[in-house]
Amino acid sequence: MSYQQRGFTLVELMVSLLLGVIISGAIIQVLVSNQVTSRLNQAMASAQEGGRFIVQRLRDDVLRAGLYDRNSPLLNRDVDTLAEESFIHQRTINLPGDFIQRPLLGASQGADGAADTLVISMAGSSDCRSLQHGYNGTERFHVVNEYFLEDGQLKCRGFDGRALRGLKAAQGHDGNAAYTLLDDVVDFQVQYGIAFTNAAEHELGRPAQYVTAEQLAALRGQGASAVTIRFAVLVKGDGQVNLPQAAQFKLLNEALQNAPDNGYYRDFGATVVLRNSKNWFGASQ
Known about the structure:
InterPro entries: N_methyl_site, PilW. The chain is an alpha+beta fold.
């Protein structure tokens, strides 16, 4: 008995190979697209999470700026509390020259588009790092918090304002080491809404204009004080994202800037009313 054997023709093999290549290419393209989408979603989620966190953290801290209750039973009274109250309310935003022991400490405007520095005063039981500077944990004292950008990290550093003013020796200050609040921060900008203390806008917490830190000293001497603080941060998302082109951003008064690379970036910001200082000035008039 004999059997007839037939195989595939060359044309059939070539068609089969071509279909296999097309199908494999489509599958690879889908996998690559899914990977790119996954990385982009991860970057967007991380930027969103980090941005929301830092805005809420800074808003909570700034809302307490100027807080001081001289009648509080928790207030430590080792110093003249009347003078301390006046100092904090008139210098809620601290500028270079406010403190004898650290004359360079103060809010500043970054040169040529560089990040700004924010420094605020209040009464509290701990600084922005949760350090108590030798107090017993429940006592209120003059807290000074500094916020600044360093090596892609938004950091904070806290001080005992009484020690900065030379009224006592610093204790338990941890060497004034800075703590990191958020990584992957590209820029940090701050503006101050000011109003003259004898104007109706001040009592309403309505700024007459927004200025930078370098303008505050002259305005303070003219009887103006800050009633709001406006801040903005630029955050980079995690992951290896390569967008078609670098994004552009404009933070507050700064010029339009390009992102450092083609990664995913997003800006966040908020405006906070300094209600403690506003209320104090309104009551003192």
